[in-house]
Amino acid sequence: AEHKKIREEAKKKKEEEEKKQEENKKRKEKREKKKEKKKEKKEKKRKREEAEITGETLESENDESNKKQKKEVSGNGKRGEFGIWVGNLAFSTTEEMLKKFFANCGVITRINLPINKKTKNNKGFAYIDFENEESMKKAVELSEQTLENRNLLIKSSKDFRGRPSKVSSNQNNSSNNGSTPSSGNNKSNVGNKESPTLFIGNLPYAATADGITKCFKEFGKIATVRVATFEDNREKCKGFAYVDFANIESAVKAMNSGKKPKLLGRVLRVEYAGEDATRR
């Protein structure tokens, strides 16, 4: 009877251990699934943001967010060969305003005007496709013309100079008027590889090389500051610039500082410059 009692207790203990192990296994699987789901969500968000920057439309019909984004695209929804990128838009600019502005250029086949879900305003840029190359060239010639008191920056959709690079996550869409959405220094929003040159966006019209230098000189020696200006007014900033540090370490230090540099009340967007813009 004593041995039987011992065996039963041992069996019971073993069953409890197995039950405990099974529960731990289920909890672990649940955590892994949650982690995987979070990862997938982050990846979808990254793809949406890349699509907004490049002008591409997403193919997945299962992603509700993609469906919402596709509603923002008028025309046939297909990215054409004769496309333009329009920057420095006022956040209140609408699709209809863009149609009227480019009405004399030719037939528009698509307009992609990304919308900030929080503010319901546009994000400061758009992509427009035309029926032919002649119409596209006419549209590009309108660069620096005014729409809603903003001098537009217009270029071919294949020309990425002076435009925000692809970002991987957490792009800040500020409601401040500017040519690009604002964001602080965040390692997660860097699309280009480490470089001694930084792209600075969301700059005010009154931004100068001296003002930008003051924002970044604490991180190391600055070789040059290249401010993009309008052709008809070299004193007026287009909304972006490049800061060339003397060495890559200083640029990395600025990117990893966690600080959100401000200039004339604007929170600046900072990221590594692309290869074509990096100081040689």
Topology summary:
Layout: H1 2-54, H2 64-71, E1 73-75, E2 83-87, H3 95-101, E3 108-112, E4 125-130, H4 133-140, E5 146-147, E6 150-151, E7 153-156, E8 197-201, H5 209-216, E9 222-230, E10 233-245, H6 248-256, E11 262-263, E12 266-267, E13 269-272
Work out the number of β strands: 13
What is the C-alpha radius of gyration, as a whole number of Å? 26 Å
Query: Which oligomeric state applies?
Result: single chain
- Specify the helix fraction band: 25-40%
CATH class of the domain at 64-156: Alpha Beta
- The CATH topology of the domain at 64-156 turns out to be Alpha-Beta Plaits
Q: What is the number of helices?
A: 6
Q: Uncertain spans, ≥5 residues at pLDDT below 50?
A: 61-77, 165-190
Second CATH tier, the architecture of the domain at 64-156: 2-Layer Sandwich
Strand content: 15-25%
Q: Strand order of the main beta sheet, please?
A: 1-3-4-2-7
**Separation of the first and last Cα atoms:** 89 Å
How do the helices and strands follow one another from N- to C-terminus? HHEEHEEHEEEEHEEHEEE
Average pLDDT taken over every residue: 78
CATH homologous superfamily heading of the domain at 64-156: RRM (RNA recognition motif) domain
Overall SS class: alpha+beta
